């Protein structure tokens, strides 16, 4: 066998390799800086707009001039037919038929009355003999009775009695001193039932707007000296509504 002889390894050149290494690093840094600058420039400049689409130009053929059309000559209007005169027929003469009046026969003549017969003579009866008995005394007629008095009008009596009640209540009004100082005036409509001088179901129907005046009106109804009840109204329960008035001029 023949031995393969290998050449000896080349010696290490440390000085040349140490000089090449900084140059390579500097080139790599420059290349990287150029790439970064290119990327920054590209990002800061927008992409150019696309080109506009091509404009199509269409050439139209010239339109022919409009033909002038002569209007047709109007036909002369046809003459209207002349209406024929209408001959109205003459009215027929009215013939009044005269009916002959019926001939009335002559009235019959009354028959002659026969001669009256002689009336027989009537003899008068003999006069009665005079009565010699004494006459009986005749009772004198009774004197006429006076006419019955008319029935009393209860409605008018009640109206008169209501006026008396109103006067009695108004006379019993005592003007409250506080209402007088506040210059309060007005009227209160009170309702109550009345029977033989007794008052019940006393109430205010329409207020005067002031409580002082309303209470004074109720007190006047309670304390009023009422007149005597008429005979026609005694024992009856009557309902009344009376206005009680308050004026500063009243005492």
From TrEMBL:
InterPro entries: TonB-dependent_transducer (IPR051045), TonB/TolA_C (IPR006260), TonB_C (IPR037682). Pfam families: TonB_C. Residues 49-153 are annotated as: Disordered. The keyword Transcription does not apply. PANTHER family: PROTEIN TONB, PROTEIN TONB-RELATED. It comes from Thiomonas arsenitoxydans (strain DSM 22701 / CIP 110005 / 3As). This is TonB protein. Keywords: Cell inner membrane, Cell membrane, Membrane, Protein transport, Transmembrane, Transmembrane helix, Transport. Residues 160-251 form the TonB C-terminal domain. GO terms for cellular component: plasma membrane protein complex. It is a single-pass membrane protein. It comes from the Bacteria. One of its GO terms (molecular function) is energy transducer activity. PROSITE patterns: TONB_CTD (PS52015).
């Amino acid at each position: 066998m023949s031995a393969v002889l290998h050449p000896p390894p080349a010696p290490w050149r440390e000085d040349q390799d140490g000089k090449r290494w900084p140059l390579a690093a500097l080139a790599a840094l420059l290349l990287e800086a150029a790439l970064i600058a290119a990327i920054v420039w590209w990002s800061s400049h927008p992409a150019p707009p696309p080109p506009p689409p091509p404009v199509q130009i269409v050439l139209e053929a010239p339109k022919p001039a409009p033909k002038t059309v002569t209007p047709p000559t109007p036909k002369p209007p046809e003459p209207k037919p002349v209406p024929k005169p209408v001959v109205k027929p003459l009215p027929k003469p009215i013939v009044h038929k005269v009916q002959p009046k019926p001939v009335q026969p002559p009235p019959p003549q009354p028959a002659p009355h026969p001669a009256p017969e002689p009336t027989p003579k009537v003899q008068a009866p003999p006069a009665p003999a005079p009565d010699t008995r004494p006459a009986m005394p005749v009772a004198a007629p009774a004197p006429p009775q006076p006419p019955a008095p008319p029935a009393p009008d209860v409605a008018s009596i009640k109206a008169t009695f209501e006026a008396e009640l109103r006067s009695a209540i108004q006379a019993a009004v005592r003007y409250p001193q506080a209402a007088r100082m506040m210059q309060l005036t007005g009227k209160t409509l009170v309702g109550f039932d009345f029977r033989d001088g007794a008052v019940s179901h006393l109430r205010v129907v329409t207020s005067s707007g002031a409580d002082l005046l309303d209470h004074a009106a109720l007190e006047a109804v309670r304390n009023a000296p009422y007149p005597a009840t008429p005979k026609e109204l005694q024992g009856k329960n009557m309902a009344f509504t009376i206005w009680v008035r308050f004026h500063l001029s009243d005492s």
